[in-house]
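Incident review: delayed structure delivery

Summary: a single-chain prediction request sat in the queue longer than the usual turnaround. Root cause was a stuck worker, restarted by the on-call engineer. No data loss occurred. The affected request and its eventual output are reproduced below so the record is complete for anyone auditing the incident later.

Affected input:
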Amino acid sequence: MPKSLMRVSMMIRRDQHDALQKMGVNISGYIRDLIDDRISNNTVIINVGEDTKKIYDQIISHSGEHDRELEPFLREALRNMLAEKIKHMQQLQKTFKN
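Output delivered after worker restart:
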């Protein structure tokens, strides 16, 4: 169920506004995400490369989407990563059996 939005007035520095505009960031969405991250007990912070950050900004930040919409895809990526790690560990285990 979508949550209702509330209009608030806030002040940011000119340089902050200019930088966000240059990056094409939806400021309202960005602020909502920051607030959600701050008040959530289930926040994960991931450092990524520049290209990944640009893709993230285009898909999530700039489109008004939310991090929680990314979660099923993140879970699938983690599942795939775990399967790959298990496969490598099984291969390593085989080297000890020989």
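Verification: DSSP finds four helices and no strands in the chain.
Action items: add queue-age alerting; document worker restart procedure.
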